[in-house]
Write a structure and sequence with these properties.
This protein is an alpha/beta fold. The protein is 32% helix and 29% strand. It has two domains: 4-43 and 100-172 and 264-330, FAD/NAD(P)-binding domain (3-Layer(bba) Sandwich); 67-94 and 173-262 and 348-397, D-Amino Acid Oxidase, subunit A, domain 2 (D-Amino Acid Oxidase, Chain A, domain 2). The radius of gyration is 21 Å and the shape is globular. It binds flavin-adenine dinucleotide.
């Protein structure tokens, strides 16, 4: 580890990897640090991503594609199913990744582009000079390093502390923190080409249960529930265990992971002097699906580009970096996050009867676009009463 770099990237997830790769490709000297001893593990993710979204960054590789999906099936509280995609999906829909391998591939690409990668290296505080971020204190193998950087990219995930240390309010209200539990479940009967989403507020309050196939008779089966709905005897794992006892009583568990996903609005500002915040650290996971891999990669790449331009121009002030914030916020990502936040707010006001009636109303629809926007538009068409109950949501579409 050197004493100074152009760019210091904190976190080796998809956001950090794309930031480091892009900044290195643009000719910056880059250090990426990851506090865990291994990139990509443990996997706190259901690992689903849309094919078109992924194609913006990387060609699919059988090394890290665990399942190739041609449909998603939404299942209501009474068991009614609605399928998106299928035969008419034209090769679209999505993949379930093997993130242990995928995240390593992304970080390897950053290293190949010239970034230095250090694992088991944890940032514990920013170096602040004249109130501006100027690097970080890093601990690795019992040593402490002071590393200076012209721009720091905080890609430290949902548990992010770096932006907060640098003075940005990163608090996630408990009601907007989905607490999650997931198993890798083996020896179960599944459709290996379909992602399943179970909606029922009795079974998963203010959240949902997923079954994402990971190859032959194996799936990532998990749940997210609102933090305020969790407590003794009704934690995410308790709900998940009840679901598994009902649906897959003979499944063999080979992994249990718990984690959190923010379902709040993005940070009010994702830049400060010499600092850019990306991915989950910027609270950019989707408030309704919890998906954040694409959003992290997109903002990571954008951050790398903006950092390179700013350093080249000799101005890494908040004002100069603001173009990063403006670009994602005013682009399709920002609009999708705002719309899906409104959808989530409407969703959590419903009960199982309303969820049933919505899924029933959709049974005649044929949809090959898996996006939340397409889905919600169709739901509004099929349920005119929703427009009266949720006029703000209708306007947001
Ligand atoms: C249960 C669950 C299921 C999910 N399912 C999906 C899904 O199906 N599809 C989808 O798109 N998204 C899903 N997500 C969200 C997705 O995992 C995240 O949005 C995505 O990983 C965000 O990428 P990131 O690079 O911003 O952060 P992360 O992938 O979290 O990476 C951040 C990295 O920073 C490191 N770090 C943290 N602090 C420090 C520090 N001080 N110093 C050094 N390193 C540090 C962490 O160890 C971590 O490796 C899910 C999340 C959970 C919890």
């Amino acid at each position: 580890m050197k004493e100074a770099y152009d760019c210091l990237v904190i976190g080796g997830g998809p956001g950090g990897a794309l930031a480091a790769k892009t900044a290195a490709e643009k000719g910056l000297s880059v250090l990426l640090i990851e506090k865990r001893p291994a990139i990509g593990a443990p996997v706190r993710c259901a690992e689903g991503i849309g094919k078109e979204a992924l194609a913006e960054f990387i060609e699919p590789d059988p090394k890290w594609v665990a399942a190739d999906l041609d449909k998603a099936i939404l299942i209501g509280p009474d068991g009614t199913k609605f399928t998106i995609g299928g035969d008419h999906a034209g090769g679209k829909v999505g993949y379930v990744l093997d993130r242990k391998v995928f995240d390593r591939e992304l970080v390897w690409q950053a290293a190949e582009a010239g970034a230095e990668v250090q694992v088991h290296a944890r940032a514990s505080a920013p170096i602040m000079i004249d109130g501006k971020v100027s690097g970080a204190i890093i601990h690795q193998h019992g040593q402490t390093y002071e590393v200076r950087a012209k721009v720091v990219i905080a890609a430290d995930g949902v548990e992010s502390k770096f932006a907060k240390w640098a003075g940005i309010n990163t608090t996630v209200p408990l009601a907007e923190l989905e607490t999650c539990a997931q198993y890798i479940l083996n020896d179960i009967d599944i459709d290996e080409r379909a992602n399943l989403f179970y909606f029922s507020f009795d079974a998963a309050p203010w959240g949902y249960i997923w079954v994402f196939p990971k190859g032959h008779r194996c799936a990532n089966v998990g749940i997210g529930i609102a933090g305020t709905k969790s407590g003794d005897g009704h934690r995410a794992k308790d709900y998940l265990d009840r679901f598994i006892a009902r649906e897959f009583p003979n499944g063999k568990i080979t992994e249990l992971i718990v984690g959190g996903v923010s379902a709040c609005k993005p940070l009010e500002s994702t830049v400060a002097d010499n600092l850019i915040v990306v991915g989950d650290a910027a609270r950019l996971s989707d408030p309704i699906t919890g998906g954040g891999i694409y959003n992290a990669m997109y903002t990571g790449r954008l951050a790398g580009e903006v950092a390179a331009d700013a350093i080249k121009n000799g101005d890494t002030s908040r004002k100069a970096l603001m173009i990063y914030d403006k670009t994602w916020r005013e682009g399709s990502l920002g609009h999708a996050l705002a719309r899906n936040y409104a959808v989530k707010e409407a969703f959590i006001k419903m009960d199982d009867n309303k969820l049933n009636s919505i899924i029933h109303s959709m049974s005649d629809l044929s949809l090959d676009d898996i996006s939340v926007k397409a889905l919600v538009k169709e739901i509004f068409k099929a349920n005119p009463w929703l427009a009266l109950e949720l006029p703000r949501l209708l306007r947001a579409l």
